[in-house]
Design goal:
Layout (H helix, E strand, L loop, with lengths): L8 H9 L6 H11 L5 H7 L4 H18 L12 H19 L10 H17 L4 H14 L25 H15 L6 H13 L9 H14 L3 H15 L1 H14 L7 H12 L3 H14 L3 H17 L15
Helix pairs in contact: 2-4, 2-5, 3-4, 5-6, 5-7, 6-7, 7-8, 7-9, 8-9, 9-10, 10-11, 11-12, 12-13, 13-14, 14-15
């Protein structure tokens, strides 16, 4: 394949950087750092690892490229499939960083989301027989359709159940449904296709009460069988908590917390706090909200957690202006 046969310059570079001589995580991380411009901290969050650890991995990857003389060149057509998984992971994580920024004052980075969608659309056009590329495009479209309602005028988070669904982009949802149906007809249930099916359940629900949480929980069961990930298990716990009640979800979250797999992931205590709040166990919920605040670094997420903490404190008679306990960040 000549270089110009990959229609987009940046996509061509991503294929070039996702060299199979490197482990999958290393090639994805290095591509995100060198081409997508993500910081080491942002990449570390994407892989749920410490920043110093990720920095060392990036250094080792560069050393292997140099020492082994790994060439950077556009792969010929017959070698594209062996690089596709890395390219898909790069685009997926690029979109994720745009959808929920690691740090800073804004939750959303529209530029990253738009670029990830543009590149994934180009990839799906380049590889029309690759259902996971098409499914990834559908997944991004479903999530991106909600962008106008995810934060209010002050930049504060609006939860999914409270979003104004009349502001969701129906054109993107309709395209997502078409694209997902096309991917599903291939008969391969890959991880991106299952995630897109989950996102579709949210996108087609006209009101929050219509969300098919039982189906979402089953889809997460299927996803967990394909991909061993504690984040998937956490999302599954949320779905179970919505389908079968918060006590059922809390049981799964507590088991996950006991494993230590997500010890530094702020959404674990945040999820636990929300389930406890729904159960009316407000003092315990407050403790989990404080822990989540200690771990969160994005300002919008911290403001959301602080609001929830104030609400449960008020319910239990604790003054909203009370100083946080020692060791918390308030």
């Amino acid at each position: 394949m000549e270089a110009e046969e990959i229609p987009d310059d940046r996509l061509r570079l991503i294929f070039t950087c996702c060299h199979p001589a490197l482990p999958l995580e290393a090639r994805v991380a290095l591509t995100l750092r060198t081409l997508a411009g993500l910081t080491t901290s942002e990449i570390a969050r994407a892989f749920l690892t410490a920043e110093p650890t990720m920095a060392k991995r990036l250094v080792r990857a560069k050393q292997k490229i140099r020492n082994a003389g790994i060439p950077y060149r556009v792969p010929p057509a017959h070698l594209l499939p062996e690089r596709t998984s890395g390219v898909l992971a790069v685009l997926y994580l690029l979109f994720n960083e745009g959808y929920a920024a690691t740090a800073g004052t804004e939750l959303l980075r529209h530029d990253l989301c738009a670029e990830a969608i543009r590149l994934t659309r180009a990839l799906a056009g380049l590889m029309p027989d690759e259902p996971e590329a098409t499914a990834l495009l559908a997944l991004m479209l479903f999530h991106n359709s909600r962008r106008a309602s995810r934060v209010d005028e002050a930049g504060d988070i609006v939860t999914l159940e409270d979003q104004d669904r009349s502001r969701w982009n129906q054109a993107e949802i309709a395209e997502g449904v078409r694209v997902l149906d096309a991917a599903a007809r291939r008969g391969q249930r890959g991880p991106y296709l299952i995630q897109a099916a989950i996102a579709k359940c949210h996108a087609i629900a006209h009101v929050a009460a219509e969300t098919n949480w039982a189906l979402i929980a089953k889809l997460y069961d299927s996803l967990a069988q394909l991909v061993a990930s504690p984040v998937i298990e956490l999302n599954r716990a949320v779905a179970v908590g919505m389908a079968d009640g918060p006590a059922a979800g809390l049981e799964l979250v507590d088991a996950l917390a006991g494993s230590g797999a997500l010890a530094s992931y702020h959404l674990l205590p945040a999820t636990r706090a929300d389930l406890l709040r729904r159960l009316g166990q407000h003092p315990e919920a407050a403790a989990s909200y404080r822990k989540a605040l200690d771990l969160a670094v994005n300002d919008a997420e911290r403001r959301y957690l602080a609001r929830r903490l104030a609400e449960v404190n008020e319910t239990t008679g604790v003054r909203a202006g009370r100083q946080p306990e020692p060791g918390t960040s308030g």
